[in-house]
Amino acid sequence: MNVCSVCGREIAEDSEFCIYHRHALDNLRATFDDWKRALEINWKEYLNRVHELDETGIWVRETAEHLMSQGSSSELQ
Q: How many domains does the chain have?
C-alpha cells in the first residue's frame, strides 16, 4: 500500500497524496491564478501566504507546508 506524503494515509489514485491532501492541492492550484493576478506573486510566495492565513484549513495548510518543504517553486510540482 502506498501512503500519502503528508499524513501516511492510503493515497488517492494517480497521486502521492490521500484524498484529503489531493483535494487541498487541487484547491491550491485552482485559486493560484487569482492570487497571482491580484498580488503578482509566484507559486512559492503564494504557498507561504496561504499557509500563514488563519482562515486556511488544516488540509491546505499541511499540503502547502509539504510543498514548501519539498522546494516546490512551480505550480506543476
A: 1
Would residue 59 count as lying in a domain?
A: yes
Tell me the residue range of the domain where 52 lies. 20-69
Q: Which one, of 54, 49, 48, lies nearest residue 68 by Cα? A: 48
Three-state DSSP string of the chain? CCECCCCCCECCCCCCCCHHHHHHHHHHHHHHHHHHHHHCCCHHHHHHHHHHCCCCCHHHHHHHHHHHHCCCCCCCC
pLDDT 10s digits, 38-67: 999 999 999 999 999 999 999 999 999 999
In a domain, 45, yes or no: yes
CB crowding 30-44: b at 16 or more within 10 Å, else e: eebeebeeeeeeebe
